Fold these 2 entries.
Entry 1:
Amino acid sequence: MENIENMEKQIYLRQNIQIEPLVNKWFAWVHLISPATAALNLFDRYVRIMDSYVEYPELHADAVKNPEMRGGPFIDLQGEKVEEVAKLINDIKENNKELYEFTVAIKELHQLLKNKAKGFSLEPLYEEVPDKLRGYVELYYDINNNACFRFFEALLYKSPYYAIGSQSIALSEIVKDKERPFIMSTPRLPGNDVIHLPISFENKGLDELFKMKNTPQTYEFIKEKLGVDIPNEDFFKSFFTTEAPPKYAKYEGEGIRTRYFGHACILVETKNVSILLDPVLSYTYESDLSRYTYLDLPDQIDYVLITHSHQDHILLETLLQIRHKVKNIIVGRNMDGILEDPSLKLLLDNLGFENVYELRDLDKISFKEGSITGVPFLGEHHDLCINSKLGYVIRVDGYSILAVADACNIEPRLYQHINKVVGDVDVLFLGMECDGSPASWAYGPLFPEVMEREADRSRRGRGSNFKEGKKLIEAFNCKEVYVYAMGQEPWLKHILDLEYTNESNPIIQSNYLIESCESNGIVAERLFGEKELLSEKKQKMAELTN
């Protein structure tokens, strides 16, 4: 450990220090923050997983080793730390009693509407709404006379049901070849190799901490800014260094530079504007895989674009670390108050982000050199009422990119209609994880009743296959096609727990697509690790040819 006892010494946060935002010691994602989904996930997903582990630790240890069980509800602690998991269960139940009563109330309301809402006025039922939900919900019928309810979600963030006191940050050093456990199935327990800071995600002291990756401060400065008790302070000091990192070289080219950072993370830059999509970044540490990292981000990011609410596309681990760099965040507008579609704007607002804007389908944001247009994102969400999902057409100096993440082209006419509005595009970024998970995998705790197995397995959260992707390319007359968002980079392992072989259907389908593109004179590639594209301004090219 470097000697940083001199409180006036200028120090940096080391680049290989990873952070994990936690809620009740579980990795934070959208459905563990928005109050209603968080309550249901906490008790109907995570407590159940932990109860199972305490009773059958050996079963979990064996399941984790089985590739066919990958991504399942099995805790990866080698059958150990049973007492610690049991303690975490007790702590959650003791510290979240009101939240538990909230989950019970939600289930009771579902049952109330099922039993008593038969097409007649819902007004008399307001008196029977469970007390914990009174004033937080509106009852309504859809046009088929199915009774439903919606939350006043903004109010929930101001209520006792927003568990801000359960938030914390875990910091640890990246160890080469040591994999992090899957975030959806394994809690983050205390240990000698990790620091748990009892700090809320909105705390601006975190911005000061992450600025120190590039800008030095004194230890006394950051300790004061964090404003919390730091356990094992000597160990915490080891996360800092006096060695300055390499400086970021701002892009000053005349054209457009597009960099692929892995999975669905793309950075589009000119010398005047920067646009970052679905930030999921690798840390800077020794690795055999060449890649872009946090050090390759500009000092200021003009726009961050979020395609949808799944944990591999709105990753708080990354977003919190770049919050101080971001001027504007663009998200899709949700269906207000619908349980399965939490507001990304409300979530980010309450996590301390500024200038968060919602777009509807075909809304456009213009800037000096171009525009960003939100386009409909079809499929991938298990036939649920999810509206907070968008693809994006980015136009910069006449050059155009369409990024659709995991959109599934199940209705090709949609994108034909969209093309008539937004025009052709030069480059398409398309996800092809075309197997997908069943509906219960991500949304199970939200369903009031367990889905029938066959129905559950039929409603896959999948992206486009070969035929669907080909139709998308034809709709926009793309000149270049890049298959991305396949979750194969090693820094995605703890987020998705996916591993493909050459025989995996998404690989086979994407190979077909690439071969089809190449046979038709279209540049095509399945991305992995890193990629850089350089394009001249079309206006400049036009001037040269005239």
Entry 2:
Amino acid sequence: MEQDFENLHDIHEYEEYTRSYDTRYIAEIQHLGLGTFRVIKDLNSYILDMKVEEQFRKWDTQYAKIVEKDKLQSEKEASLNSAEERTLDAQKLQQDTDDILLFTLEIDDTIDWETLKDKKKFKTPNPKNHLNNELNKLKTPYKPNFKKIPDEPLKANFQPKLSIIDKIFKSLAEKKIDQANNQFESVKAVWEKEKNEIEENNKKLEQQYQESLKVLENQKNDIRKKFDILENEWKQSEIDFYKEQEKANLEVEKLKSLYIEHNPESVINYCELVLNNSMYPDFVPKDFDLDYNKESKMLLVEFVLPAPDTYPTLTEVKYIATKKELKEYHLSETQIAKKYDTLIYNITLRTLHELFEADQANAIEIIVFNGWVKAINKATGKKENNCIVSIQAKKDEFVEINLSQIDPKACFKNLKGIGSSKLSGITAIQPIIQMNKNDKRFVSSYDVSNTLDSSSNLAAMDWEDFEHLIREVFEKEFSSNGGEVKVTQASRDGGVDAIAFDPDPIRGGKIVIQAKRYTNTVGVSAVRDLYGTVMNEGATKGILVTTADYGPDAYEFAKGKPMTLINGANLLYLLEKYGHKAKIDIAEAKRMQKENQ
């Protein structure tokens, strides 16, 4: 029988606004039995409810296993078979952990949209089924016990007995006859009085009975009317139930259509469903955040990995008869470290496989996977959240790999994955890329390079055209690795910020680009300002581009910092690299500025 753990569900729902002023629905959910907590967000309240329901269902399944296991364990501890059974459980968990990657290869990870639809039947019973029960509760009046009218006295019973003397003397006979008649009349009068009284009383009882029957019938009619109203409400509830169900199922169809159209939010929702369906041993947290860029078809996965101290170490349990106790045998520290590293590589490759395999809409060409671990830093004693593995994989290359035959670590390294030599050490690394695509500063871009020729003077071109030219040049520079560049809203001061997202494992990450369409030497203040922007943005690098050149103090300040200074000559080289001709004539630009003034 399925257990109900709804009393262990704790949920707090609220709303917030995104930077684009859309309403985002948020649910903070907790399973009191497991002690697990998760924050789920979505722009669609129905999808959010579906995610919450699915998460609670999976938590309940997990908790049911624990409850069942605890129940069985308490029974097994008393028997000699407990040791053997615990050994089998431990060995199965070890095997399941070793086979985490192989397990998913036998499963089709594609989402079946029909399983997402609500097909429940309306189970609320018709309240009219209880009508007879309610009617039977009414007290039916007892039929009155009418008093029976005694038999009418008969004159024949009052005939006098005449003796021979009475017959001889007529007066004596008449006297006896008169006495008998008088007695009869007296008895009859009494009888008639009693009869009238009984009939009157019986009539009153009948009237009271009939009135009680009327009251009962009125009560029954009131109950029938009440149940008619309840039945009508029930019928309306049934209609509303199936209307809401139809509406919810239309949302699933809408989600499916939007996913096929590569709508970013829908692609993320779909990928969340894929990863939520993935079955892992209980010690794997299976918590993650996703981001998706439609233009580059890149999916970013921020995945919470199990900490080393949660790795299952039990291998065998033996019953020591002499001590009447159970003895546990565990993996050694060396074995744990080796198996943990393999586990992390397997989870990484498994996640890539599941997402690529389930991508029925061909919405994903590149996946960047960052694996995070929350663990105690043995050096400081403080809990830290470190990224320990980061990898970028292209779909067309990854699907060609035979995952059933690979060595996980070798495959990870072959895909240019980044991680320390011993992952169990929880050494933090810089993720290949961490994207924030909700930056409201981004504006629509357009191409400029196709309008250039050898007579185009970059130092004199329109400031807005110049910023989009810089975006275009660097987009071509980063596009070979799946990167992209976005122009931000800029003040009309001849300079503009652009932000590049580069997935390259060596030079990659978030890069701030600033363009200075200057006719004078760029001083150290502009370089210092860009460095401050890099720090504030949490970027990995800054690039400053100018049509002029930089002073010695600017080059000196940039030395040893994650910054690149590109002058006019370098900019012309980049343009020629991608087949475009232009010039930079500072004197001509100054003359044109003076004429405009």
